[in-house]
Model the fold of this input.
Amino acid sequence: MSGVALPARGRTAWLPRNAVLLGVSMFCTVSATNIMTPLLPAIRDDFGVSISTAGVIVGAFGLARIAVDLPAGFLATRVPPMRLSLIAAIVLIIASVVGFTSSTVEVLIAARVGSGIGVAILATIILAALSSTATAADRGKVMSMYPMANNVGIAVYPLLGGILGAILGWRSTFAITAVLAVAAALILLPILGRIELRPKQQAKGDGADDPRVLHGHRKTVALAVTNGGVVANMIHRHGVRNTILPLYAATVLGLGGVSIATAIAAMAITGFIVMAPGGMLGDRVGRRRVISVGLAAVAIGDLAFLLTGDYLSFLLVAAIIGLGDFFSSSQTALLSEIVPPRQRTMALSGYRFSSDLGALIGPILLAVIMDTWGVHAAIIVAAVILLTASVLARIGVPRRVDLAVPEAAAAPSTQQAATATAATPTPDGASPLPEPPATTRDPRSVPSPAKEAAP
Done:
């Protein structure tokens, strides 16, 4: 059995129970993001506001979230996570109630700001909790729960909001958000009571025994290029997928709304399928490699859209480009591992900020380029940004962070477990000597019953 590592307690679950529950909590939390988006025309009719004001109603949530991302990480290192999560959930519930009862558009915008603040804090804590429940051997797989829950929620809630809004009116979406905020808190708070989210302050050399932990200039550069990759990916996701591609499909290919929606759904489905396997790939071959290859693959996929000429080719490329989402959890896992444990929450809040920043500037940047130089130029610029981020991820993060985690580090072997048991001190302080295995005894040294019975 030499060299074979076996779990000490039977077969482990594919995903830790806490990780799954944290993913469910995240799914409930993101409902406030876009559940009311399909109902903007009804909101405009109710308040009699312009299209620009309707844009402010939507944008207020994102601006509040991006403003709170970094402070949320700081607060999470100073305030007990359970207390901070409870405060954030209460803020989200109150904001939902205010939105439900809003009588003016100003009150509605304030409610959206409150929702953005609550979601930003809860998402940061959930992301840090996922990292805390993971080990170096499965962090990519565990962290994949975050983008999976987030992306499924963003895809599902507009549909739910549109159905409920058609039956009960747009205010019903705020009632659903309040109920889901309560559910998210009921799931999250008990988990935070079981895990250590804030490691105790350690010596200056914290993380010196882990080759993945970086310090000084190397850490600064690695954090910068990794977050730059996050921004580039979000520029692609929100600028190319959600803005440029629908316009390209309509103006260049002449596709209708149903065809465009089908292609976007294909991207989402294939992306969801590969997220967890992609995290596992990062656990096995190294996160730096996976991130660099993933960014380059998405860039090539963007350029491939320029070769499409009909619906089938557009749908095929859309499905293929969704496969590029395999690297997203490796970004959060890498950010968790290149800093000492006590700095992980701040590093992950930086990820949240970079993600929201890319989502904010992507549609604006690429839309301006499309208006000025055309849709082809916008797609090419997005691909160049992704390729640049891919190269920087390769050269800006030291190679040593890709060191593979041996399976024996994740679970002790049976021989290690036996040795540890044998070395356990006895009550009087002495360490008992382990008995030699039965197979090491010489059978010839054992007297036979016949010899013992002979006179």
Confidence is low (pLDDT under 50) at residues 1-12, 201-205, 406-455. The chain has two domains: 16-198, 211-403.
